[in-house]
Amino acid sequence: MKITEVNTYFVRPRWGFVEILTDDGYTGWGEAVLEGHTATVLQCVQEMKEYLLGQQAGDIERIWTTLYRAGFYRGGGVLMSAIAGIDQALWDIKGKYFSAPVYELLGGAQRDKMRVYSWIGGDRPSDVGQAALEKKNAGFTAVKMNATEELQYIDTYEKIDAVLNRVGAIRDTCGKYFGIAVDFHGRVHKPMAKILAKKLEEFDLMFIEEPVLCENMEDFKEIAASCDIPIATGERLYTRWDFKRLFCAGGVDIIQPDLSHAGGITEVKKIGAMAEAYDVALAPHCPLGPIALASCLNVDAVCHNAVIQEQSMGIHYNVGKSVLDYVKNKEDFQFKDGFVELPKLPGLGVEVDKALVLEENKNPHSWKNPVWHHADGSIAEW
């Protein structure tokens, strides 16, 4: 089962796919992308080909360690996202070789299905009460929304009140026990994060996400002390060594490693186990495509501390194409009563529509996130 070919593809709305082929006819798919830097990540995959061609596809730990350690420079979003896509594809091949879902090769499932939530509200959230009610009526038991627009280090209480009004609208329309997560998205700095977190207590939130960026992870303890809401973060961390520092800093209740950024299945399984040892929950980040989602579900299946899964069907980023457009076995990704069943097919569980992938790749996307400014013209966090 030697690797003979490594291909990369751009697919809308903002994703990158990796295809690995073997000499005995197996094909594995991965999703290698860092939103806004897809071209860079896919080029990095191509640079790694010389470490892959001719290797046994089943030697996943050996290949992962080679890609991580042998290049001297390591870590960071681009390198780890490239490794993640390759890793997913190798697990896909291995599962197909053994005619089993990947989670069976990771020790077997600890659960039968996985709770999921849906995004509402867009970049500049509005009308979220009605949007949340629509998701509730569609069977979801939880939603997530961006908290706010731009916020300066010190900003107005008018903006704080606008956040509270939006969250209050969801609680009013969906009831006391409907799950609400509020994503600060790294747009909020510590002085305002403490205020906003404290004022959001009244709504009994499921969690607040990225109240500050992980580059300021020493602040999480202070923010946690200012409110009684679980704190989630981790989408911008890429290795178990990054998460080691986060666990040591303390203050975080839920980690959100991304299966397409943090080294793939091999690495996130280890990160999840580390979190369990700190009594911290796992809720993988996934505003991405079907291969990333399937990878998440395989890890969720085997991690005792996995609590809820992000997914991007209906998210505001998905313009032109969406998750299930690339999936032939769409029936395996249906949500019911706020849950999704575990993958059923061998490998990751996604039958990729390669014809559509090839068509999309003819006109590579170049998605970039917006650049925001404060009223004084200075750059704002997006």
From TrEMBL:
Residues 125-230 form the Mandelate racemase/muconate lactonizing enzyme C-terminal domain. GO terms for molecular function: galactonate dehydratase activity; metal ion binding. Its EC number is 4.2.1.6. Keywords: Lyase, Magnesium, Metal-binding. It comes from the Bacteria. It is an enzyme of class 4 (lyase). SMART domains: MR_MLE. Gene3D superfamilies: Enolase-like C-terminal domain, Enolase-like, N-terminal domain. One of its GO terms (biological process) is amino acid catabolic process. The keyword Magnesium applies. This is Galactonate dehydratase.
